[in-house]
Amino acid sequence: MRNRNSGGGPGPGPDGNPGNPDRGQRSRRPPRRQRSRPGQHGRDLPSFGPQRLEQGVILYGWHPVKAALENPARTIRRLFATENAARRLAEDGVELPFAPELVRPDVIAARLGPDAVHQGLLAEADPLPSPELESIERRGTVLVLDQITDPHNVGAIMRTAAGFAVTAVVTTARHSPEATGVLAKSASGALEYVPIVLVQNLARALTALKETGFFLVGLDSSGSSDLAEVGLRAPLALVLGAEGKGLRQLTRATCDAVVRLDLPGPIKSLNVSNAASLALYVVTRRLASL
User: Fold this and answer.
1) Which of 30, 177, 190, 241 could form a cystine bridge with 246, CB 3.0-4.6 A?
2) Range in 15-24, 130-139, 197-206, 207-216 the model is least confident about
């Protein structure tokens, strides 16, 4: 998950529609569209799109920004907020590193695109450091992502991982989305709670986990056993493959077991983020009973 930003570039700045030509004139050049100016309706954000924020990340929405502000390991560079969002932060007792820059909601929307639900908050921040694989605690469950590239899915998986107290999420530095923008919004603050370990070679990382005592379980719809029935032990690494491709051959070969989720209905496979939720529920329940 490299740390450049996702999301669209800045949208149009002006408000309103051009007026009609004055009556009685044969022709008149249509009025120019006016750009909003700083101080007119609150401060404008910088004119560059979020993808140009060098070596930083964009966080937006209530839960991602609030969690980042409450994380002492996260460095916030700039904080933009509507008046209502700034008031809500104060009411919740969130300590701010500095006063937010007050802007109108449409100014934030212009930075992110029309479909982004920003809830009046946007932060520019430094990326969180990626811990070394060797530093992962040998306890509980670790999630391993095998080239899952959709930021919505990875964000949803991160949110589930935080809910089930996953120790860490391991993924490749390449062929994975960046921990910013849409992914951060989908994670709903989970980036601040679950460390992301970036590795260059997933098969070697799995071998290293196995050598330190982790039991490697690959999840695939073509798995030979049901996850609810296969023998499990902690610490456990649950390996998830990309939708469509599933687990790569070398990834499968490195796992101690490749399992499936037995479903009673006619559809036998789930979206990867939904499969991660169900699998973590099964694994958590079973490990707790050992």
Assistant:
1) 241
2) 15-24
Q: Nearest CA to 65 among 47, 43, 92, 42?
A: 92
pLDDT tens figures, 169-212: 999 999 899 999 999 999 999 999 999 999 999 999 999 999 99
pTM, full prediction: 0.81
DSSP 8-state class, residue 45: P
Q: How far apart are the first and last CA of the chain?
A: 34
Q: Tell me the two tokens of residue 161.
A: 């991982």
Count the neighbouring beta carbons within 10 Å of the beta carbon of residue 36: 16
Tokens describing residue 27 = 């022709």
| 4 secondary structure, DSSP code | -
What is the layout of strands, in order, in the sheet containing 76-81?
57-60, 121-125, 76-81, 101-102
Q: With beta carbons less than 8 A apart as the criterion, state whether 277 and 284 touch.
A: no
Q: Where are the alpha helices (DSSP H) in 119-234?
A: 151-163, 181-187, 202-211
DSSP state at residue 43:
P
